## 1
Amino acid sequence: MPGEHRIWKFGDDVNTDLIIPGRYLDNYDPKHLALHAMEGASPEFAAGVSRGDILLVGENFGCGSSREQAVIALKQAGVSALVAKSYARIFYRNSVNLGLMVLVSQSAYAMFDDGEEAVLDSDENAIISIDRKKKAFFEPIPAHVLKILEQGGLMPYLRKRLGR
């Protein structure tokens, strides 16, 4: 998780229709979905996001339908990790299954602003501002979840584990 990245900040109860509006689900190509990532919440997001950027979100992120396309859109757009107070359960599971880093922090949302640059430090379990004046801790990733994320998702993890 090294490198500095822009923070994109969104509030509570951001549902999957805000992440990838249903009108774009006529085409499941990841590149198509990425063009419309977060369009329901921020029309400028898809054009401005850069590879490695971080979404800092409030509570219940990813609520609504169980569409995997929401995770695919964010990952393909370049989002490297999500830092939230909490996630909708199915969104969290979809994120792990598809290899998108999902971190939980109760303090980061209040501490960081939209547009700030930060780094994720997995050794410290923290998100840290570039000037190192701000540091918010996230919960350690459970070992079994980390193994899946390190392989890029559930299917790559299973292929490796099964020797295929």
## 2
Amino acid sequence: MTTTDLLAQQRADREDIFDLVRHERFARDRGDWDALADSFIADSYIRTTWFEGNAREFADQSLDMAVKGRHSKHPIWPIEARIHGDRALVESYAEIQNRSTIDGVEVDMTQHCRFFSRVVRTDAGWRFSTFEAIYQKDTIAPVNPHDTVPIDWNEVSELRPAYRIWAWAMTKRGYEVPQDLLGDDRPDLVAEFYREAEVWLAEGSTDSQ
């Protein structure tokens, strides 16, 4: 393969991976649960504030969450894909947007984060091997500006700054939110996470996904 051909292949792979990133979040928001699960390899790993497991389980539990009335949207902007052989790392800026009613008050919440995945080339095209978030900050505001957000700051002040409002709101819905997730307030965890991802990428094959 010539240098020109190699560069063209890398550009095509990058666009395919970015399409995968956008498609997976769109499937999640649209409620296309089979398409969501199909964005991943079978032996996948996903970790979020409320979930840890594989893609099929994630799709099923996302459906259950939707049936219970929690609907979030996930705008996403892929920013980097680094490809080595049949492996790649992809990172995207993202938001998780949610409108909920808490103690009778309608509120809008936004979680700012970056989504990070290991991706592998398969016979069906590029697919996610992992999906994790690096949390940055979150906000909450009443839909009616005359309302007061029903939040006791004493309940959230000791939680992780990167996702404390999100954790508080999810806990009120009965979910358990770990306090050891990746976040910009824990650069030590993020640095180790990146190091492990770079080692995986350098191996450059799909033998150990």
